[in-house]
Amino acid sequence: MSDTAVPLDYPFLFPSSFKMNNQAWLTSLKAHRAIAVIRSSDQEMALQMAKAVAKGGIQFIEITWNTEKAAELISQLRLELPTFSIGTGTLLNLEQLQEAIDCGAQFLFTPHTDVAMIKLAVDAGVPIVPGAFSPTEIVTAWQAGATCVKVFPISSLGGAAYLKALQGPLGEIPLIPTGGVTLENAKVFIDAGAIAVGLAGDLFPKHLVANGDWEAIGQIARTLTQNLTTSESSLPI
Questions:
Q1: Measuring CA to CA, which residue among 118, 164, 160 is closest to residue 137?
Q2: 221, 192, 183, 235: which is closest to 36 by C-alpha?
Q3: Which residue has the higher pLDDT, 163 or 20?
Q4: Does 2 map to a domain?
Q5: How far is it, in rounded angstroms, from Cα 8 to Cα 71?
Q6: Cβ neighbours of residue 128 under 8 Å, at least 6 residues apart?
């Protein structure tokens, strides 16, 4: 654990005035395009992973709630990376959602659509991105107040072709595909209409993590962000 780790009496550390409103959050997300998704059973490892992609220029970092001591890590990253947006995902119920809000998470992802969870996040003024599989779920989440909607798992739904097909009837709803986004196809999803993409394993090759090669991971993140924010359609990583 870093010497800057914070205790779990975190609610007073991040007052509501420090939050970014939904529209500003969406605008920033659309400008940067990538969300790094970090899941680890080792808190210190997760900390280094987050710092590596931050150094590579990824502004949005999601610490999944099933990461070791996720709440403590999120609070710590809020202090150590104050200009980045640090959020969490894999939130399954209202209790976890409230704990995530209390620890200072700046955005919230769920793998499913739960109207009560969406309402709690909306009332707290924290951007929430629920997971949805079908057009019905996507519209339900949006009408309940979701900031945008996670299309998950995109690999089981036909990939970018499914996302593109949604743009006709649901083009006003900002969508984030996850669960099948890779370094090679990330730009394809952006071209198909995604506001941003979420990547996990591809950003963190196991051998680089095992060797602690954070510079190499930072370079992967840097190359990804450069390609996602250009007008080129290829992603030569």
A1: 118
A2: 221
A3: 163
A4: no
A5: 8
A6: 107, 108, 109, 110, 117, 118, 121, 122, 145, 146, 147
Distance of alpha carbon 121 from alpha carbon 189, whole angstroms: 27
Counted domains in the chain: 1
Task: Give the integer Cα–Cα distance in Å for 151 and 174.
Answer: 10
Structural domain span for residue 77: 18-226
Say if 8 falls within a structural domain.
no
Give the pLDDT confidence score for residue 231 in this predicted structure: 56
- Among 102, 177, 104, smallest CA distance to 138 is for 177
Q: Are 33 and 181 in contact (CB under 8 A)?
A: no
Mean pLDDT value across the chain: 90
pTM for this prediction: 0.89
pLDDT digits (tens, 9 = 90+) for 27-51: 999 999 999 999 999 999 999 999 9
Q: Which token pair is 2?
A: 């870093």
Q: What one-letter code names the amino acid at 200? A: A
